[in-house]
Amino acid sequence: MEMNEDSQVVSLQECRRFITECMIAVGVPECHANAQSDLLVEADYRGHYSHGMNRLDHYVKDVQTEWTDKLAVPKVLAETPATAWVDGQNGLGAIVGNFCMGIAIKKAKNVGVGWVCARGANHYGIAGIYAMQAARFGLIGMSFTNTCPITNSTRSKKPAIGVNPLAFAASSSNDSFVLDMSTSTVAVGKIEMKKRKQEKLPEGWALDHEGNITDDPKVACEAQHLLPLGGTELNGGYKGFGLGVMVEMLTGILAGSNYADRIPPYNLFSKDRPRDLGQCFIAVDPKCFAPGFEDRLDDLLDSIRNLDPSNPEKPVIVAGDPEREHMAEVNRIGGIRFCKDQLESCSKLAASLKVAPLKFK
Fold first, then answer.
1. Which residue ranges run through the membrane (predicted)?
2. Fewest 10 Å CB contacts: which of 105, 151, 152, 231?
3. pTM confidence score
4. How far apart are the first and last CA of the chain?
5. Helix-strand-coil percent breakdown of the chain, rounded to 5?
6. Which domains does the chain have, with CATH numbers?
7. Other CB atoms within 10 Å distance of the CB of residue 78
8. Closest Cα partner for 37 from 61, 14, 8?
C-alpha cells in the first residue's frame, strides 16, 4: 500500500465531491451517489487504490449504458428470523451491499446471527467495507461476492471462476482484525494499477493468452487469466482455487444468481444480459458464545504483533495493520496522492461529464 509520492494531494472531502458529482451527472440519485462515493473513497483511504477512484469510470459507464439500474432499490424475496434472500434488482453495488448487511446486522442483534444472500447484484467495491459495518456494532462481519470468470482453475487453460473476494472483520474497544482478500493471487484491479504506473507484474500474478505466466500488465489485462491464491499447483494454488469455489457456493449457488462461467465477461454483459452477481453477508454476535471475546481478541492480536520479526525493520503485522498505517499517512498529509495516469483519467472524465475537475490542496 504505497502512497504515490510524485503527485499532488487531493483531500478526502474533494474526492467525495468529485465522485458524487460524476455519478449525479449520469442521473444517479444523490443518496445513491453519496453511497457510491463513500465506498470508493474508503477504498483509497485504506490504500486499496484498485477499488477506489480507479473504479469510478467503470461505474459511470455501467450507468450510462444501462448495464446497471441507477434507480434500483433491493427487495427481500424471503426471510426467517436469521436469514434473508434479496433481489438486488441490478442496482448499484453500494446500494445492494449496504441494504443486505444492514439486514444481517439487525438479525444478528435480534437472534445472534444474520445471514443474507443476494442475487441481481453488481460490483460492490472492497468486500471489507461491509464486514466492517458489522464490526462497528460489536459483531463479527463477513462478506463475499462472485465476479466475472477470470481465475484459472488448477490444471486448466481457461478461467473458471472470478477473483471471488472474501472479508472478515472483528473488533474490540481497542483493536480490530480486518481481512479483505481475493481468492486469486491478486485482484484484477491491482494489475490495472500496475498498468497505470507502467510497472511489471511480480511473477505468479497472471497468465497470458496461452496460459504462460506473464509480467506484462497490458497482456494480463487483455488475457484476463489470473492464478488462484497460491499460484501454481506445486505452490498450493489448488487451495486458493478451493477457497474461490467455496465463495462461489456461498454467493451464486446459494443466492440463485449467475455463477462461474454463467457470469458474462465484462465486455459482453448488457442491459438485457446483466452481471447478476451473487453476494453473501453474515453478521454474528460473539456475545452468544463464551464471555470475554474482546479480551481474547486483543490478546491474540498482541501476541502475534509481539513476535520477533525476521527483519527488524519490518514489524510483525496482522490483517488491517497496513490499512491503518495508510490511513494515518493520509491524515498526516491531508489527503490522497493518486498516480499521474489516474489523475489524467479523472480530468478526462470531468470534461466528458461537465463537472468541476479535482482540486488539489
1. none
2. 231
3. 0.93
4. 22
5. 45, 15, 40
6. 8-65+335-353 (1.10.1530.10), 75-185+231-288 (3.30.1370.60), 186-226 (3.30.60.50)
7. 8
8. 14
